[in-house]
Amino acid sequence: MTFSNDPVLDISGASVGQSGQTILENVTFSIDKGEFVYLIGRTGSGKSTLLRTLYAELPPHGGTLNAVGYDLSNLKRKEVPRLRRKLGIVFQDFQLFEDRSVAENLIFVMKATGWSDKSKMKGRVAEVLMNVGLPNSGQKMPHQLSGGEQQRVGIARALINFPNILIADEPTGNLDPYFSEEIYEVFKDINNKGTAVLMATHDHHIIKRHPARVLQCEDGRLLDSVKEKVTYGLD
Ligand SMILES: Nc1ncnc2c1ncn2[C@@H]1O[C@H](COP(=O)(O)OP(=O)(O)OP(=O)(O)O)[C@@H](O)[C@H]1O
Protein backbone atom coordinates (compact mmCIF):
# COMPACT_ATOMS: atom_id res chain seq x y z
CA MET A 1 0.00 0.00 0.00
CA THR A 2 1.37 3.48 -0.86
CA PHE A 3 0.34 6.33 1.40
CA SER A 4 0.28 9.78 -0.09
CA ASN A 5 3.53 11.01 1.44
CA ASP A 6 5.54 7.83 0.92
CA PRO A 7 8.44 8.18 -1.54
CA VAL A 8 7.70 6.68 -4.93
CA LEU A 9 11.06 4.89 -4.83
CA ASP A 10 12.72 3.94 -1.56
CA ILE A 11 15.91 1.92 -1.98
CA SER A 12 18.24 0.98 0.84
CA GLY A 13 21.47 -1.03 0.80
CA ALA A 14 20.54 -2.61 -2.51
CA SER A 15 22.75 -4.62 -4.84
CA VAL A 16 21.83 -4.84 -8.50
CA GLY A 17 23.32 -6.75 -11.38
CA GLN A 18 22.70 -9.27 -14.09
CA SER A 19 23.66 -12.78 -15.10
CA GLY A 20 24.92 -13.44 -11.58
CA GLN A 21 27.28 -10.45 -11.64
CA THR A 22 26.68 -7.60 -9.20
CA ILE A 23 27.18 -4.19 -10.87
CA LEU A 24 26.19 -1.70 -8.13
CA GLU A 25 26.38 -2.29 -4.39
CA ASN A 26 24.93 -0.54 -1.37
CA VAL A 27 22.58 1.56 -3.47
CA THR A 28 20.58 3.88 -1.21
CA PHE A 29 18.27 6.65 -2.38
CA SER A 30 14.67 7.66 -2.35
CA ILE A 31 12.64 9.72 -4.78
CA ASP A 32 9.64 11.66 -3.55
CA LYS A 33 6.39 12.34 -5.31
CA GLY A 34 6.87 14.96 -8.00
CA GLU A 35 10.71 14.94 -7.95
CA PHE A 36 12.80 15.22 -11.12
CA VAL A 37 16.06 13.25 -10.97
CA TYR A 38 18.75 12.50 -13.55
CA LEU A 39 20.72 9.23 -13.60
CA ILE A 40 24.16 9.54 -15.15
CA GLY A 41 27.34 7.50 -15.47
CA ARG A 42 29.76 6.21 -18.06
CA THR A 43 28.74 3.52 -20.54
CA GLY A 44 28.53 0.22 -18.71
CA SER A 45 28.41 1.82 -15.25
CA GLY A 46 25.04 0.25 -14.43
CA LYS A 47 22.32 2.80 -15.26
CA SER A 48 20.17 0.42 -17.29
CA THR A 49 20.79 -2.38 -14.82
CA LEU A 50 19.45 -0.20 -12.00
CA LEU A 51 16.43 0.97 -14.01
CA ARG A 52 15.60 -2.56 -15.17
CA THR A 53 15.72 -3.68 -11.55
CA LEU A 54 13.34 -0.88 -10.57
CA TYR A 55 10.76 -1.98 -13.12
CA ALA A 56 11.19 -5.64 -12.20
CA GLU A 57 12.89 -6.86 -15.34
CA LEU A 58 15.86 -7.97 -13.25
CA PRO A 59 15.67 -9.35 -9.70
CA PRO A 60 17.61 -7.39 -7.07
CA HIS A 61 20.69 -9.14 -5.63
CA GLY A 62 19.93 -7.90 -2.11
CA GLY A 63 18.78 -4.99 0.03
CA THR A 64 15.45 -3.30 0.55
CA LEU A 65 13.74 -1.95 -2.56
CA ASN A 66 10.31 -0.39 -2.53
CA ALA A 67 8.93 0.91 -5.82
CA VAL A 68 5.50 2.61 -5.89
CA GLY A 69 4.46 0.54 -2.88
CA TYR A 70 5.80 -2.82 -4.12
CA ASP A 71 8.57 -4.76 -2.38
CA LEU A 72 10.84 -5.69 -5.31
CA SER A 73 12.65 -8.39 -3.33
CA ASN A 74 9.46 -10.35 -2.82
CA LEU A 75 7.51 -9.43 -5.91
CA LYS A 76 5.14 -12.09 -7.21
CA ARG A 77 4.99 -12.54 -10.96
CA LYS A 78 1.32 -11.53 -11.05
CA GLU A 79 2.19 -8.23 -9.35
CA VAL A 80 4.57 -7.12 -12.13
CA PRO A 81 1.81 -5.71 -14.42
CA ARG A 82 0.33 -3.81 -11.45
CA LEU A 83 3.75 -2.35 -10.59
CA ARG A 84 4.19 -1.25 -14.22
CA ARG A 85 0.87 0.58 -14.22
CA LYS A 86 2.15 2.83 -11.45
CA LEU A 87 5.61 3.16 -12.97
CA GLY A 88 5.67 4.21 -16.62
CA ILE A 89 8.69 3.19 -18.72
CA VAL A 90 10.12 5.15 -21.65
CA PHE A 91 12.76 3.53 -23.87
CA GLN A 92 15.55 5.01 -25.96
CA ASP A 93 14.34 3.31 -29.15
CA PHE A 94 10.63 4.17 -28.66
CA GLN A 95 9.47 0.54 -29.16
CA LEU A 96 6.32 1.38 -31.09
CA PHE A 97 4.46 -1.13 -33.28
CA GLU A 98 5.29 0.14 -36.77
CA ASP A 99 2.23 -1.49 -38.34
CA ARG A 100 -0.29 0.18 -35.99
CA SER A 101 -1.45 3.76 -35.76
CA VAL A 102 -0.50 5.92 -32.79
CA ALA A 103 -3.95 5.40 -31.22
CA GLU A 104 -3.75 1.64 -31.82
CA ASN A 105 -0.34 1.56 -30.12
CA LEU A 106 -1.87 3.18 -27.06
CA ILE A 107 -5.04 1.05 -27.12
CA PHE A 108 -2.91 -2.10 -27.30
CA VAL A 109 -1.36 -1.19 -23.95
CA MET A 110 -4.71 -0.23 -22.49
CA LYS A 111 -6.29 -3.56 -23.38
CA ALA A 112 -3.27 -5.39 -21.98
CA THR A 113 -3.61 -3.51 -18.71
CA GLY A 114 -7.30 -4.12 -18.15
CA TRP A 115 -9.12 -1.29 -19.95
CA SER A 116 -12.30 -2.36 -21.80
CA ASP A 117 -14.71 0.58 -22.05
CA LYS A 118 -14.24 1.93 -25.60
CA SER A 119 -15.30 5.49 -24.90
CA LYS A 120 -13.08 5.72 -21.80
CA MET A 121 -10.16 4.38 -23.84
CA LYS A 122 -10.81 6.93 -26.59
CA GLY A 123 -10.96 9.70 -23.99
CA ARG A 124 -7.71 8.63 -22.34
CA VAL A 125 -5.91 8.34 -25.69
CA ALA A 126 -6.94 11.93 -26.50
CA GLU A 127 -5.83 13.06 -23.05
CA VAL A 128 -2.34 11.52 -23.12
CA LEU A 129 -1.73 12.72 -26.68
CA MET A 130 -2.70 16.19 -25.53
CA ASN A 131 -0.31 15.85 -22.56
CA VAL A 132 2.61 15.23 -24.94
CA GLY A 133 1.62 17.89 -27.46
CA LEU A 134 0.34 15.58 -30.21
CA PRO A 135 -3.39 16.22 -30.12
CA ASN A 136 -4.04 15.40 -33.79
CA SER A 137 -1.77 12.42 -34.37
CA GLY A 138 -3.88 9.46 -33.26
CA GLN A 139 -4.52 8.20 -36.79
CA LYS A 140 -0.95 8.61 -38.01
CA MET A 141 1.42 5.70 -38.45
CA PRO A 142 4.73 5.86 -36.56
CA HIS A 143 6.75 6.26 -39.80
CA GLN A 144 4.81 9.46 -40.54
CA LEU A 145 6.22 11.02 -37.37
CA SER A 146 9.64 12.51 -36.64
CA GLY A 147 11.87 10.78 -34.07
CA GLY A 148 10.92 13.41 -31.49
CA GLU A 149 7.23 12.84 -32.17
CA GLN A 150 7.66 9.07 -31.94
CA GLN A 151 9.27 9.52 -28.54
CA ARG A 152 6.32 11.69 -27.50
CA VAL A 153 4.08 8.73 -28.33
CA GLY A 154 6.38 6.57 -26.19
CA ILE A 155 5.84 9.00 -23.33
CA ALA A 156 2.08 9.09 -23.92
CA ARG A 157 2.04 5.29 -23.73
CA ALA A 158 3.93 5.38 -20.42
CA LEU A 159 1.36 7.84 -19.06
CA ILE A 160 -1.72 5.77 -19.90
CA ASN A 161 -2.29 4.35 -16.42
CA PHE A 162 -1.61 7.50 -14.41
CA PRO A 163 1.84 6.41 -13.11
CA ASN A 164 3.41 7.92 -10.01
CA ILE A 165 6.81 7.99 -11.71
CA LEU A 166 8.17 7.86 -15.24
CA ILE A 167 11.40 5.91 -15.63
CA ALA A 168 13.20 6.81 -18.84
CA ASP A 169 16.34 5.07 -20.11
CA GLU A 170 18.16 7.57 -22.34
CA PRO A 171 14.95 8.87 -23.91
CA THR A 172 16.83 11.41 -26.03
CA GLY A 173 19.66 9.04 -27.00
CA ASN A 174 18.33 8.57 -30.56
CA LEU A 175 17.45 12.21 -31.13
CA ASP A 176 19.34 15.24 -32.33
CA PRO A 177 19.83 18.13 -29.89
CA TYR A 178 16.75 20.08 -30.99
CA PHE A 179 14.44 17.14 -30.32
CA SER A 180 16.31 16.31 -27.09
CA GLU A 181 15.39 19.70 -25.70
CA GLU A 182 11.81 19.26 -26.86
CA ILE A 183 11.54 15.86 -25.18
CA TYR A 184 13.02 17.25 -21.98
CA GLU A 185 10.29 19.91 -22.03
CA VAL A 186 7.61 17.21 -22.35
CA PHE A 187 9.00 15.38 -19.31
CA LYS A 188 9.26 18.62 -17.36
CA ASP A 189 5.69 19.56 -18.19
CA ILE A 190 4.45 16.17 -16.98
CA ASN A 191 6.66 16.50 -13.90
CA ASN A 192 5.21 19.94 -13.13
CA LYS A 193 1.78 18.30 -12.98
CA GLY A 194 3.02 15.98 -10.19
CA THR A 195 4.53 12.85 -11.78
CA ALA A 196 8.06 12.06 -10.58
CA VAL A 197 10.70 11.48 -13.30
CA LEU A 198 13.90 9.42 -13.16
CA MET A 199 15.79 9.95 -16.42
CA ALA A 200 19.01 8.19 -17.38
CA THR A 201 20.95 10.37 -19.77
CA HIS A 202 24.34 10.98 -21.37
CA ASP A 203 23.17 14.44 -22.42
CA HIS A 204 25.12 16.77 -20.18
CA HIS A 205 23.93 19.83 -22.08
CA ILE A 206 20.41 19.15 -20.86
CA ILE A 207 21.60 18.77 -17.26
CA LYS A 208 23.58 21.98 -17.47
CA ARG A 209 20.65 23.89 -18.94
CA HIS A 210 18.12 22.37 -16.55
CA PRO A 211 19.87 21.48 -13.31
CA ALA A 212 18.19 19.02 -10.95
CA ARG A 213 19.21 16.31 -8.52
CA VAL A 214 21.67 13.83 -10.06
CA LEU A 215 22.34 10.18 -9.21
CA GLN A 216 25.63 8.95 -10.63
CA CYS A 217 26.76 5.35 -11.17
CA GLU A 218 30.49 5.18 -10.57
CA ASP A 219 32.83 2.32 -9.72
CA GLY A 220 30.05 0.06 -8.50
CA ARG A 221 28.41 2.69 -6.31
CA LEU A 222 25.58 5.17 -6.69
CA LEU A 223 26.42 8.77 -5.73
CA ASP A 224 23.66 11.26 -4.95
CA SER A 225 24.18 14.98 -5.62
CA VAL A 226 22.05 15.77 -2.58
CA LYS A 227 24.74 14.19 -0.37
CA GLU A 228 27.99 14.28 -2.33
CA LYS A 229 29.67 15.83 -5.32
CA VAL A 230 28.91 14.20 -8.63
CA THR A 231 31.38 14.81 -11.37
CA TYR A 232 31.11 12.79 -14.53
CA GLY A 233 30.87 15.16 -17.46
CA LEU A 234 29.32 17.94 -15.42
CA ASP A 235 32.38 20.09 -14.81
N1 LIG B 1 22.92 -9.38 -20.29
C1 LIG B 1 23.99 -9.10 -19.55
N2 LIG B 1 24.63 -10.05 -18.84
C2 LIG B 1 25.70 -9.76 -18.08
N3 LIG B 1 26.23 -8.54 -17.95
C3 LIG B 1 25.64 -7.56 -18.64
C4 LIG B 1 24.50 -7.78 -19.47
N4 LIG B 1 24.14 -6.59 -20.01
C5 LIG B 1 25.02 -5.68 -19.54
N5 LIG B 1 25.91 -6.27 -18.74
C6 LIG B 1 27.03 -5.60 -18.04
O1 LIG B 1 26.49 -4.85 -16.97
C7 LIG B 1 27.25 -3.66 -16.79
C8 LIG B 1 26.31 -2.48 -16.72
O2 LIG B 1 25.61 -2.35 -17.95
P1 LIG B 1 24.44 -1.30 -18.11
O3 LIG B 1 23.79 -1.57 -19.43
O4 LIG B 1 23.59 -1.31 -16.90
O5 LIG B 1 25.25 0.07 -18.16
P2 LIG B 1 24.76 1.51 -18.58
O6 LIG B 1 25.34 2.44 -17.58
O7 LIG B 1 23.27 1.53 -18.75
O8 LIG B 1 25.47 1.72 -19.97
P3 LIG B 1 25.00 2.57 -21.25
O9 LIG B 1 25.24 4.00 -20.89
O10 LIG B 1 25.89 2.09 -22.33
O11 LIG B 1 23.55 2.25 -21.51
C9 LIG B 1 28.24 -3.59 -17.95
O12 LIG B 1 29.49 -3.99 -17.46
C10 LIG B 1 27.73 -4.60 -18.93
O13 LIG B 1 28.78 -5.19 -19.61
Automatic annotation (TrEMBL):
The keyword ATP-binding applies. It comes from Fulvitalea axinellae. Keywords: ATP-binding, Nucleotide-binding. It comes from the Bacteria. PROSITE patterns: ABC_TRANSPORTER_1 (PS00211), ABC_TRANSPORTER_2 (PS50893). The lineage of its organism: Bacteria, Pseudomonadati, Bacteroidota, Cytophagia, Cytophagales. GO terms for cellular component: plasma membrane. Residues 6-234 form the ABC transporter domain. This is Cell division ATP-binding protein FtsE. Pfam families: ABC_tran. InterPro entries: AAA+_ATPase, ABC_transporter-like_ATP-bd, ABC_transporter-like_CS, ABC_transpr_LolD-like, P-loop_NTPase. Belongs to the ABC transporter superfamily.
